[in-house]
Amino acid sequence: MSAEAGPATRTGPDEHVRRVRLPADRRTPAAARAVVRSVLAEADLDELLNEALLLTTELSTNAVEHARTELDIEVTADQAGLTVTVSDFAAGPVDELTVGVRNLATDIAEVAERGRGLLLVDHFASRWGTTYLRTGKGVWFRLDRADRKGKGPTTPAPPASATQPDGAGQTAVPSAGAMNALMQTTPDPYAEDPLPDFAAGLLTRVAEMVGAAGGVVRLDRGDGQGAQVLARYGRQPRVGNDLLRVPLAVHRPYAGELELDAAPTAYAQPLAVLTAERLSLHLENDRLRRADVRRQAWLTFLAEASELLAQSLDVELTMALIPQLVVPRLGQWCAVHTTDEWGRLRLAAASHADESMLPQLHAALREAGPDSVPARLREASRNGTRTPLGAPMEGFAVPLIARGQRLGTLAVGRHQRHRQDPDEIAVLEDVARRAALAIENARIHAERRRVAQTLQQSLLPPVLPVVEGIGFAAEYVPTGGDVDVGGDFYDVVPLPDGRWLVVIGDVSGKGVQAAAVTGLVRDVIRVLAGDGKPLPEVLARLNETLVERGAGRYCTLALAAVGPGEGDRLDVGLHLAGHDRPVLLRSSGGPAAFVGTGGTALGLLDAITSPTAQLSLEPGDCLVFYTDGVTERRRGRELFGTGRLRDAAAPLAGYSADVVAARLRATAINFSVEEPRDDIAILVLRNDTA
Question: What's the pTM?
């Protein structure tokens, strides 16, 4: 038998030809068989009937299922035999038509059906091949009368222990009935795992056909459990030369074989091969399905790992989380090493599936020597490639690289039951990349927070001055989790005339530019106030500076010059430049009140107004300054507001400045569970005269 490019053509008076065009529906195979049957009857070729009808059914069904166009059936018979051509009108080249499972297409189910049909064509036809026309494509086969010797169309399948010797003394090849019987065994489409029952059915049928006393199908799925029995028939196959073995044509990591306790005769061998090929097709389907399920599981695992790593911006917590993600899913143990500023590796975190093995793991990670685990880790970090680790802590190390920076290594020990397959190694390398990026992000966040804290501290006084008779207290809560520099600030500056200048302000925006403007405002106030300039002039000069150099940012400001007054009083000269009015608390009782007169914010207009308000503080009286981060603290759509601030401050009359500032800060923070959206600054001035 062979596959050729086109059918042989014959002409002569004894030739019988039929050409029929049929629709693409389920009745087409029956109609095609009727055409073939009539031609065979006319040509007196009844001995070819079974094979011709079987192959015609396979080709016409295949064309209906996959081409989905009308079909042309051409049947030509002569004294020597029969030729049948099935053509469709689908565009494009003929799809993969390779017999068996030696060249699987991506759709395993489709290949299974086509492989079955063409396997029968290849077995029974004298010749077969494909046709290519401008209007379509097709498959043809030729059955010669001379080739039917020993294959008689009406020859039944032999009994369980029978063979069919031919004239040459060799056993006959399988008949169409025997081949078709094996083809009719199909998996249960509704079973959760149809392979064991399907394999058992195939094995039983082929064993009965060849008269085998026993048989077994073994399959190794490459999961570390070795070859497992998938199906068994009769007794355990004996060991000997007469044992019929056929390997299963499956792709790695699958491997397996079919064994029959029967002699490999010319009758048993092709049936066993056909059984193995049919089983292999469905095993490949199972392998692809399981691989797809595993890949989906790995994608889910990577997504969850990325989400967990992204939630942490703490360096130590991130490195402690990585081994917990790896063990035991990807290995028996895991160790994370990071590099210091000198390039030396330092153990950051380690985990083992068996906690009792942790001391041994730590000891192995501290060993010295050219072949020790630390030496291999240094090699992986230096070369930036995956490096195997030797016994006793067998595994491999993956470098941690993020944004071109080598951060350390991720070492993983192999599973005890099986070694990682390529998919697992690829997942582990992906985890290493994500872990390195998470560590780098956490480091950047920590550095940013450190810079922000340093810059913020430079804009605020390290301590407030201690002045006899005057109490100062301040509370500051930055926004953005200490990462962004805010524009709120406060200060207490000595004046040349012996008084003290209390300053609180809020520069618009956040970040480095806002911090630069804040530093500018603070320094200008200190310089001008230190030179003894009147406060209205200080505000006017500061406004000019912001208009010229403020980069479009503005500032609200409250200035209060505080000095001794008559008796035990303190005299306060208050100037507001667009800032919220402070709250006055009288120790003698009475409601808290807002004092002062609003003015123009600095940096918006060329000229500003800032009326002066004169106050007198009795012993125990407090003046509470604050920024809009307090009054604009949100709880959903609700604001904390000035009314709540006044009501919260009223019961604090008579308390020290420290207590007043701390209580108001706690009240504002506890108003909402959300992080502050704006900086919160509170500055309290109190008359501490006894």
Answer: 0.53
